[in-house]
């Protein structure tokens, strides 16, 4: 009869949690837009940023392996529905298309983008 073996160590974690994915992407890019390809408000947010000369990192959640979980994490972080688009500038959550547009209209978006290094002009 063999002696009982020691319990095997827990398996190494290979994937990041949805919150870690959001944090990693938001903190390693000047501007990130979490989006879905079928969301017209996501398209508006991306087009506004592109028109200003910003090349945001875009995460299309409907094409991402962890998209459903990331979308749920964004809902928890934002405390609102719908959770996309979700715009992060310099690692900070700005908000959805409403917040993006409001900041653009009141003149505070360009300075935020410049401070983040997303605009040089």
Question: Any overview of this molecule?
Answer:
It holds the Pfam family Glutaredoxin. It contains 5 helices and 4 strands. By secondary structure, it is of the alpha+beta class. It has a 4-stranded mixed sheet, with helices on both faces.
Give me the CATH fold name: Glutaredoxin
Q: If you average the pLDDT, what whole number results?
A: 89
The termini sit apart by: 76 Å
Estimate the global geometry from the Cα principal axes: globular
Percent of residues in β-strands: 5-15%
CATH superfamily: Glutaredoxin
Number of strands: 4
Assembly type = single chain
**What topology, given as strand order, has the largest sheet?**
2-1-3-4
Helical/strand content category: alpha+beta
H-E order: HEHEHEEHH
State the domain count.
1
User: How much helix, percentage-wise, in residues?
Assistant: 40-55%
* Number of H- or I-type helical stretches: 5
Reported for the largest beta sheet, the result is: 4 strands, mixed
Radius of gyration over alpha carbons? Answer: 19 Å
Q: What's the CATH class, please?
A: Alpha Beta
Q: In the CATH hierarchy, what is the architecture at level 2?
A: 3-Layer(aba) Sandwich
User: Which regions are unreliable across 5 or more consecutive residues at pLDDT < 50?
Assistant: none
């Amino acid at each position: 009869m063999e002696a009982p073996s020691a319990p095997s160590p827990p398996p190494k974690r290979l994937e990041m949690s949805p919150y870690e994915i959001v944090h990693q992407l938001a903190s390693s890019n000047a501007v990130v837009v979490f989006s879905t390809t079928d969301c017209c408000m996501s398209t508006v947010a991306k087009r506004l940023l592109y028109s200003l000369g910003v090349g945001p990192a875009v995460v299309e959640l409907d094409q991402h392996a962890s998209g459903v979980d990331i979308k749920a994490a964004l809902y928890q972080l934002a405390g609102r529905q719908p959770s996309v688009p979700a715009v992060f500038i310099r690692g900070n959550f700005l908000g959805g298309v409403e917040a993006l547009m409001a900041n653009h209209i009141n003149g505070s978006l360009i300075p935020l983008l410049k401070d983040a290094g997303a605009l040089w002009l």
